[in-house]
Every structure is written in structure tokens, then in C-alpha cells.
């Protein structure tokens, strides 16, 4: 009986831990390649050292916690394009317009429980430092294309 109680308790704790977790998944559209596969939780989306600019991105959060993710990109020759939400495409495809900077934010209860951190790999400059909760990552007005992105969620 004790073993059964312990097993039930462990299963309940595991379900609670899963229900309280969150994962970010994101993908990028690269020049001359198209959409890459999904990356998650800090993995690299895009390429480094291949001179392939990112032209668009999309992101979503996988969680049972209420809320979502929004992101804005600064596209060459356009500027900030406006916020996209929960796996919508931000940027352009087929127009050869590089993304030069990004902003990412969480909403709802997700924003109360997690910080979103992200960084970009820029042509001729390498990886930026980590940006947090809507701060700019990348550059504007310098014609420095983003080639790769990493995004992760950190519990507060």
C-alpha cells in the first residue's frame, strides 16, 4: 500500500511540474534556403559563418500556462514591422530584406513566471549579448544582417 501511495504521489508531482513548465519553439526563413526546422530553448536557428541572412522568423510557447509570445523585427529598408503573435510570420520572404534586430516579449501569466532571453548572430560582428523581455537584440541603421537567433525561457 505504501509503495502504491508513493508511486501515485510521484506521478502527481511529475504532472504538476509539467503543467508549470514552458518551452519556446522558433524557426527562421533564411536567404537561399527558406524555412529551417524548429529550434527550441536556446538552440540556434539559422546559420553562422555562411553569410545567409535571416529574412523572417516565427515563435510559439508550448505550455499549459496562460499567455503567449510576441516579437517584432527590424527589416532592412522597412524598419520595425510591428508585433507578431504566437507563430505568426514576422519579416518578409522572397524580398531579400534582412532582419537587423529583434524584440521578444511574453504575455499573461507566462510573463509573470518566466523571462524571455534572446541573442542574435550578426554578419561581421558575431553573437550579441543576451537581451531580455522586449529589449533590442541586433542593430538598426548599420546594415548588419542577422544570421542566427537563440531564444530561451528562464523561470523567475
List the helices and strands and how they pair.
Layout lengths: L1 H18 L2 E9 L3 E2 L3 E2 L4 E2 L7 E10 L5 E7 L3 E2 L3 E2 L4 E2 L7 E8 L1 H6 E9 L3 E2 L3 E2 L4 E2 L7 E10 L1
Antiparallel strand pairs: 1-2, 1-3, 1-5, 4-15, 5-9, 6-7, 6-8, 6-10, 10-14, 11-12, 11-13, 11-15
Could you walk me through the main structural features you see in this protein, from its secondary elements to its overall organization?
The protein is 15% helix and 46% strand. The protein is built from two helices and 15 strands. The chain has helices at residues 2-19, 108-113, and strands at 22-30, 34-35, 39-40, 45-46, 54-63, 69-75, 79-80, 84-85, 90-91, 99-106, 114-122, 126-127, 131-132, 137-138, 146-155. The strands form three sheets. Strands 1, 2, 3, 5 and 9 form a five-stranded antiparallel beta sheet that branches. Strands 4, 11, 12, 13 and 15 form a five-stranded antiparallel beta sheet that branches. Residues 4-19 have low confidence and may be disordered.
Amino acid at each position: 500500500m505504501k509503495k502504491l501511495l508513493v508511486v501515485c504521489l510521484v506521478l502527481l508531482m511529475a504532472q504538476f511540474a509539467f503543467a508549470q513548465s514552458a518551452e519556446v519553439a522558433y524557426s527562421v526563413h533564411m536567404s537561399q534556403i527558406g524555412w529551417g526546422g524548429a529550434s527550441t530553448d536556446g538552440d540556434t536557428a539559422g546559420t553562422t559563418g555562411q553569410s545567409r541572412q535571416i529574412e523572417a522568423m516565427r515563435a510559439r510557447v508550448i505550455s499549459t500556462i496562460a499567455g503567449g509570445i510576441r516579437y517584432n523585427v527590424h527589416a532592412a529598408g522597412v524598419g520595425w514591422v510591428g508585433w507578431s503573435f504566437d507563430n505568426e510570420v514576422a519579416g518578409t520572404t522572397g524580398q531579400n530584406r534582412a532582419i537587423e534586430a529583434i524584440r521578444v516579449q511574453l504575455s499573461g501569466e507566462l510573463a509573470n513566471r518566466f523571462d524571455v532571453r534572446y541573442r542574435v548572430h550578426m554578419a561581421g560582428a558575431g553573437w550579441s549579448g543576451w537581451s531580455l523581455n522586449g529589449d533590442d537584440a541586433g542593430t538598426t541603421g548599420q546594415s548588419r544582417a542577422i544570421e542566427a537567433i537563440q531564444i530561451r525561457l528562464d523561470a523567475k
